[in-house]
Amino acid sequence: MEESVRPSSTVNGTPQHIDLQSIPLPPQRGAGDAAAVDTTSARPPYAAWESRYRAWVIGSDVFTAFVLIVMSAFLIDRSDPHDMHALGTAAAFLFGLSVCRAWSPRVLGEGAEEYRTLGRGLVATAVLVALGGLLFGALAVQPWVFIVVPMISVFMFLQRYALRQVLHRRRRLGECLLPVLAAGSPDTVADLIARTKADPHVGWRVEAVCTYSGAGAERGSGEVEGVPIVGKLDDLAGHVRRGGYRVVAVTADQHWNPKRLQRLAWDLEGTSAEMVVAPMLMEVAGPRLNVSGVLGMPLLRVTAPMFTGGRRLVKEALDRFGSALLLTLFSPLLLAIAVAIKLDDHGPVIYRQRRVGRDGHTFTMLKFRTMVTNADKLKQELQSDNEGAGPLFKMRKDPRVTRVGGLLRRYSLDELPQLLNVVSGRMSLVGPRPPLPEETAKYAPDARRRLLVKPGLTGLWQVSGRSDLSWAESIRLDLRYVEDWSLALDLVILWKTFRAVVQGRGAY
C-alpha cells in the first residue's frame, strides 16, 4: 500500500489531485542527532504535518460525499440537491463518521484500524439513512441506502488509500514520523528500534531511550542501536515533558510493576505523549485482546483463536465463491499458459505434489509445471547450493526452471491451478503456506500450530517478503495469522498479494 507521491482519484469524471508534497513540513531529526533528544524545549502536541494530513482526509471525504450526493439527487429524485433525501444523507454521513471517530488523529494512518473505523462510520451512515426514511415517512430511500452510500464508500476508501500511499512514501524518506521515547531493558528496546527501522510506514522513530540497567542510564549517556540513552526509568516522565515526545513505548523490564506503570500513566497526563505498553503476548493482537475490569483490577483478556464458528463458515463460503469466480475470469489466461508450457518442452502442464493440510491431512496440490520433468531427481544433486531457509529448498537461479517457468514464477502465475484446491475445500484463499510432508516431520511444537487451519494460496509470509524471509520469520508470520485471523485481515492480505505479484517482489 504505498507508492505514488501524486495520487489522483476521479469522482464521476472529475479528477481530484492529492499532493501532500506541496504542504510544507517541519524538518525531521535523525535518531542520532543531538537535537532529537533535546530536553530543554518541548515540541508542540501535534506537528504541522499531522494537522494538515487530517485536514486533507476530512476535506477529501466531505468533498467526495458532497459531489456524489448532489449528483444522486438529480439522477434519482430528478430534483434539486436540497431535497430531503440528499440533506438527510449528508447529515447522516457527517454524524456517522464523527461518532465512529473516523477522523480521529489516533487512527489516521494507523494500519487496518483506520479502515475499520471508516467502515463502521459508513455502515452507521446507511443505518441512519434507512431509519430516517422510516421515521419521517420518506420511504423511497432504498437507492440512497443501497446505491449512494456504497458508492460513497468505494470512493472514500480509494481516497484514504491514496493519501496513505503519500504518507507511507514520506515516512520511508524519514519524514512524517512520530518521535518515540522507548523505556525498558536494553534488549527489548533494541528489538523495538529494529522493528521501527524495518517498517517505517508505521510512523514511529525512536529518538531516545530510558533504561534501568547499564552505566549509560546512570550517566544519561550511551546508546542502544544508535539511539541515545537519556536517563533512567525513574526519570522518564521528566524527559517526556521536556522533550515533547508523542509516544512513550514501554517494553519489558523487571523494573516495571503495576504500581510503577500506574504512576507513569498519571505523570504523563497533560503531556503530548501517548503511553503504549508492549504486552508479554507479543504475537497476539487485534480482536483477541480486550481490556476489562474485574474486582477493581484492569485485566487483559485473551480469547481463544477462532478455528470454527460463524466467521469460519463465512470464510469458507467466500473461499469457494471467490475461487470459482477467479477460475472463470482467468480461464483464457489458464488456457494460454497451458499451451505455452506444452510448446516449451512438450511435457505435462500440471505439476502434482503431496502437501500437508489442516490437521495434518495430506492432499494433492496442483500447480503449473515450471521445471524440467525430472526436477525432483535433480534436487539431490543441488542440495549443496540450497539457499532456502530452514527445511525449505530454494535457489535464486535454479537450473531446473524452464524458460516459461521463470516468467510464471516471477508473477506467481504457476499458483493459479491451486484455485481448484480452494474450490474443493482442501485449501483457502488466505492461510499458512502448504508444507511438504518432509517439512512437517521437522516441525517444532510451535510450528505445528500452522496445521490448525487450512493452508492458503497466499498469506502473511507472501505479502511480507515471500522467498526473501528467514525460516523463523516465516513461522512467526504464519503463527500470527493462525492466532489473529479475521476477515478484515484476509482482505488486506489479498490486496497486498495482488501488489506483490504485480511487482514480482521476493519471488524466485
From TrEMBL:
Ranges that cross the membrane: 53-76, 82-100, 121-138, 144-163, 321-341
Alphabetical list of InterPro entries matching this protein: Bact_transf, EPS_sugar_tfrase
MF term (GO), any: phosphotransferase activity, for other substituted phosphate groups
Subcellular location: Membrane
Polar residues: bias regions: 1-15
Any one cellular-component term (Gene Ontology): membrane
Domain Bacterial sugar transferase residues, every copy: 315-502
Topology relative to the membrane: Multi-pass membrane protein
Region named Disordered: 1-38
Keywords: Membrane, Transferase, Transmembrane, Transmembrane helix
Family under the similarity heading: Belongs to the bacterial sugar transferase family.
Name of the featured protein: Glycosyl transferase family protein
Species: Amycolatopsis japonica
